[in-house]
Design brief:
This protein is mainly alpha-helical. It contains 3 helices and 3 strands. The chain has helices at 40-52, 57-63, 68-81; strands at 8-9, 15-18, 24-25. β2 (15-18) and β3 (24-25) form a beta hairpin.
């Protein structure tokens, strides 16, 4: 289920992964820890960070106050339906 990406460093020596939009994503690019409005892009960025090794699963859940079930649901939705699976308004269509 967890798809690890190879470890990459940018010109400043920061670890990064390729985010959901195809742009490099570092820890400083992630949503703030106090995020309350979870749009598709933010959810996908956190999932990409965990899969790429920027954050561990536990660090992501702790940082963003997510349950393991909630985060696991994001991963499953992306795997099964792509980014569209993260839409809360269409969740019944993807179950």
């Amino acid at each position: 289920m967890l798809q690890q990406q190879p470890q990459r460093l940018n010109s400043r020596g920061e670890k990064y992964v390729i985010g959901p939009t195809g742009v490099p994503l570092t820890l400083s690019d992630l949503p703030p820890a106090n995020t309350q409005r979870w749009v598709i892009r933010r959810k996908a960025e956190v999932v990409a960070a965990v899969r790429g090794g920027l954050l561990s699963f536990e660090e992501a859940c702790d940082r963003y106050k997510l349950t393991t079930e909630e985060f696991g649901g994001w991963q499953k939705s992306i795997d099964a339906h792509g980014l569209a699976g993260l839409r809360t308004t269409r969740i019944q269509q993807y179950r």
